C-alpha cells in the first residue's frame, strides 16, 4: 500500500504535484488501499506507466488513481509556473498550520501535513515574504527548525519535483535545530550542488535575516525600473574599475535623488558578486509595493 507521501514523491512536474495535493482534498477521491499489483512489464502488458505498481485500467496506460492525477494536471500549469514549494521541519508545529487556518489557508495552492513536525506547502512565489512575516509575528520566538524553499519544475525537466523533494528531506537531518533557519534554492537543480552554494553564503540563513533580504529585494524592485535593474546588474559585473567608474557616474546622472540615495546607502558597489546574485534571485519572490 502506497502512503500519501509516496504519491507525492512520484510527481514529476509542479503541476502534477499541485493536482495530487488538490485531489487529496476532495472527499470523493480515495487512494487505493489494496495490495494488488500490476502484471510484470512485457511487450503486451504491464503495470501502470506512471506509478509502476498498480494494474492499468482496461485499454489505458494508467491505473485509476494516476489517470485522475494526469487529467487534473492540465488545470494547474499556470499556477505551477509562478509557485514555490516549502518543505519545513518545525518544533513545535504551529496549530494554524496543522489546521489550515490564517494566511496559510487563504493563499496556499496546495498543502500536506506529513506528521507532527513536517509539512509541505505550495504558495505563489510572491506570497512567500508575507507568509514568513506572519510566521515570525505569531510564532517566531517559539519555533525551531528548518524551512526549505525551492521552485517547481516543468513536466519536461530532467529533474523531477519528487526527486527534489526527496533531496531536501534528506538534507534536513544534517541541519541544526537550535534556531529557525531558511534554506533557499533559486533553481531546482541547485539541490544537487548544495556545497558550492553553501560556501558562497547563498544557501542557509536565519529567518529574520532572510526576511530582511526579501525586504531589500522588494525595495530594489519597487524603486528601479526593469531596464535600470538590468543596467545596474551589468555594471556590477564589470571587472575594469575605470570602466565601471565611468559608466556608474553616467548611471547616477539619470537616476532620481531617492534612487541614488538608496544605492549609496546600501553601498551596493562594494557588494560581492554572490551578494548581487542573491539580490537578483530574490526579486522573483517579491512584488512591487
Class based on secondary structure composition and strand pairing: alpha+beta
Strand proportion = 5-15%
Radius of gyration: 22 Å
Whole-number average pLDDT? 89
| Overall 3D shape | elongated
Q: Identify the CATH architecture of the largest domain.
A: 2-Layer Sandwich
Strand order of the largest sheet: 2-3-1-4-5-6
Helix content: 40-55%
The number of distinct structural domains comes to 3
Number of helices: 14
Distance between the termini: 48 Å
> Residue ranges: pLDDT <50 for 5 or more in a row?
none
- The SSE order reads HHHHEHHEEHEHEHEHHHHH
What is the CATH class of the largest domain? Alpha Beta
CATH overall fold name of the largest domain? Alpha-Beta Plaits
Can you walk me through this structure?
- Helix 8 (161-171) links the parallel strand 4 (144-151) and strand 5.
- 46% of the residues lie in helices and 12% in strands.
- The chain is of the alpha+beta class.
- The chain has a six-stranded mixed beta sheet with strand order 2-3-1-4-5-6.
- It contains 14 helices and six strands.
- It has three domains: 4-76, no CATH class; 82-207, Alpha-Beta Plaits (2-Layer Sandwich); 214-285, no CATH class.
- Helix 11 (226-236) packs antiparallel against helix 12 (241-254).
- It has helices at residues 4-9, 14-25, 64-73, 77-81, 95-99, 103-107, 128-139, 161-171, 194-199, 207-223, 226-236, 241-254, 257-266, 273-282, and strands at 83-91, 110-113, 118-124, 144-151, 180-184, 204-206.
- The protein is elongated and about 70 Å long.
Amino acid at each position: 500500500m502506497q502512503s500519501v507521501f509516496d504519491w507525492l514523491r512520484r510527481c514529476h512536474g509542479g503541476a502534477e504535484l499541485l493536482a495530487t495535493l488538490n485531489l487529496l482534498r476532495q472527499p470523493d477521491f480515495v487512494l487505493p488501499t489494496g495490495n494488488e499489483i500490476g502484471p510484470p512489464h512485457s511487450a503486451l502488458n504491464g503495470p501502470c506507466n506512471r506509478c509502476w505498481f498498480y494494474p492499468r485500467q482496461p485499454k489505458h496506460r494508467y491505473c485509476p488513481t494516476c489517470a485522475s492525477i494526469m487529467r487534473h494536471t492540465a488545470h494547474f500549469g499556470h499556477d505551477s509556473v509562478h509557485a514555490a514549494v516549502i518543505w519545513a521541519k518545525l518544533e513545535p508545529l504551529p496549530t494554524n498550520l496543522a489546521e489550515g487556518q490564517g494566511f496559510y489557508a487563504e493563499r496556499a495552492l496546495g498543502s500536506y501535513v506529513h506528521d507532527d513536525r513536517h509539512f509541505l506547502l505550495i504558495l505563489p512565489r510572491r506570497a512567500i515574504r508575507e507568509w514568513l512575516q506572519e510566521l515570525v509575528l505569531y510564532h517566531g520566538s517559539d519555533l525551531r527548525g528548518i524551512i526549505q524553499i525551492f521552485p517547481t519544475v516543468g513536466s519536461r525537466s530532467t529533474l523531477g519535483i519528487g526527486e527534489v523533494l526527496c533531496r531536501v528531506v534528506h538534507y534536513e537531518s544534517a541541519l541544526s535545530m537550535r534556531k529557525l533557519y531558511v534554506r533557499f534554492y533559486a533553481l531546482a537543480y541547485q539541490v544537487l550542488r548544495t556545497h558550492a552554494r553553501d560556501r558562497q553564503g547563498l544557501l542557509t540563513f536565519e529567518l529574520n535575516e532572510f526576511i530582511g533580504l526579501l525586504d531589500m529585494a522588494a525595495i530594489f524592485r519597487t524603486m528601479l525600473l526593469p531596464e535600470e535593474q538590468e543596467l545596474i546588474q551589468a555594471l556590477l559585473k564589470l571587472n575594469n574599475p575605470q570602466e565601471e567608474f565611468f559608466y556608474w557616474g553616467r548611471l547616477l546622472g539619470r537616476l532620481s535623488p531617492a534612487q541614488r540615495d538608496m544605492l549609496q546607502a546600501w553601498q551596493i558597489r562594494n557588494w560581492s558578486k554572490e551578494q548581487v546574485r542573491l539580490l537578483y534571485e530574490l526579486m522573483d519572490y517579491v512584488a512591487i509595493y
